[in-house]
Amino acid sequence: MLPLPRSVTWGAGEFELTARTGLSVGEGLDGVAHWLRGALGPALDRWLPPAGADGTIALAVDSALPASGYLLVVTRDGVTLLGGDPAGVFHGAQTLRQLLPPAAYRRAPVADGPWRIPAVTVRDAPRYGWRGCMLDVARHFMPKADVLRFVDLLAAHKLNVLHLHLTDDQGWRVEIPGYPLLTEVGGWRAESMVGSRQHGRFDGRPHGGYYTADDLREIVGYAAARFVTVVPEIDLPGHTQSAVAAYPWLAPGHGPVGVRTGWGLSPHGIDLTDDTLEFCRNVLDEVCALFPGEFIGIGGDECPPDQPLDARRRFGRALVDHLATHGRRAYAWDEILEGGAPRGVAVAAWRGPGVTRAAAEAGHDVVACPDLSTYLDYRQSDHADEPVPVGTVLTVDDVYAFDPATLAPDHPERLLGAQCNVWTEHMPTTRAVDYMVFPRLCAFAEVVWNSGRHADFRDRLAEHLPRLDAMGVEYRPEAGPLPWQRRPDAAGWPRDRADRESELDALVNAPR
């Protein structure tokens, strides 16, 4: 099982799922039951009717269990799955699915069975409340169907936050009433850079796309049914060239600019004026209407040097206060700490362990996502055939060695959890995302679920890979990329770990 539950006690015998196995559904669990029938029915060719002559799978909530935790008991006679809340029952159902053969993950029958579940008692609960993944759909747009698939993959690994990076210099991906040019102009670019920015190569091919309001409502609802919260991010006030391209009055001193076609930082950020602040408030109003979760991402990172720190601080505080009028909390990258972050901001700490500690000591809730442990766009080996090798080497074992608890040891109550980040400059397709994300996300999922310190992890990962195969995930093989996963046309820019650590230290400690 992966992530490994807290306690597993194997019993004698097994329970066989037949066409007459029933599903008993406790109060408040209709959604979980609907998901379980849909998850198992197509592959097993049986749909778990309400009552069964050949034993029952019983779902119920038991408030004595911890939130998001569960108790799963399988005997020869049936299955009992109790959760501290519906989320706990859902997580237990994911574990139940893992106890079946990998063919249970397919969308149509490929085997006749029998479908047997070993007798076992599993007691389990998550380590952190924030078990997340950031997906950048701004640099390369991911169509809605692929986002829904990605949600399923997160849920299968008991991750519960999808941080959706919706806007950046290279594209604006969310429809905003009153500002149609944000998507009509800002939603596409004339071409894209090929490989690392140091090489200055472009493909000459337009790229674009955006989500309608109904698309995003669908994504949010689909994720909620799988107990995944979508945290949207509108990156402000830097990383806004796509907005400036759509509405030049946001930065009149820059002159007309197009949507950025290259990677790296843009000098074309919005001006920090009352007019642009009103624009940002209007955008956030619409975002709050689409995303009902507690947190709304406001970026705050890598701002152009012509945006003075004091002005950025005032601007950021105004956005935080505005979100508070909606009953929401701002979520921002750790640059928001520079000069003192507004109270109530949750911080995504990406620039090393010291920033996580500093955010917690300053009284901020923090999500740990240090790039040297959690950036899944970084290369997976030092072999020359890795596609677009950028960043430092970050192997499955490196991700598994990550321990968020060590980053805020004096203020553990401030550590909401952790997330991995998937920046997509070099991932133009879902196949490329699969390669870069898996199986490293499997290692990360265990870290945030139960600590990730288990000697048998590699053995369990090997048993987990056939499940990924069944779900159609084109993960990186242990031996390295397959021929079609390589990118000889796109040169990278590998980094040495010590050099990157020095660079981060300079960034964090630079005078402001």
From TrEMBL:
Gene Ontology biological process terms, A to Z: carbohydrate metabolic process; glycosaminoglycan metabolic process
InterPro entries: Beta_hexosaminidase_sua/sub, GH, Glyco_hydro_20_cat, Hex-like_dom2, HEX_bac_N
Key words, A-Z: Glycosidase, Hydrolase
Record-annotated Glycoside hydrolase family 20 catalytic domain positions: 128-305, 312-450
Assigned EC number: 3.2.1.52
Source organism, top-level taxon: Bacteria
Top class in the EC scheme: hydrolase
Stretches with biased composition (Basic and acidic residues): 486-503
Domain Beta-hexosaminidase bacterial type N-terminal, first and last residues per copy: 2-125
Active site (catalytic residues): E302 (proton donor)
Pfam families: Glyco_hydro_20, Glyco_hydro_20b
Molecular function as annotated in GO: beta-N-acetylhexosaminidase activity
Reactions listed under catalytic activity: Hydrolysis of terminal non-reducing N-acetyl-D-hexosamine residues in N-acetyl-beta-D-hexosaminides
A Gene Ontology term for the protein's cellular component: membrane
Family: Belongs to the glycosyl hydrolase 20 family.
PANTHER family: BETA-HEXOSAMINIDASE, BETA-N-ACETYLHEXOSAMINIDASE
UniProt-recorded name of the protein: beta-N-acetylhexosaminidase
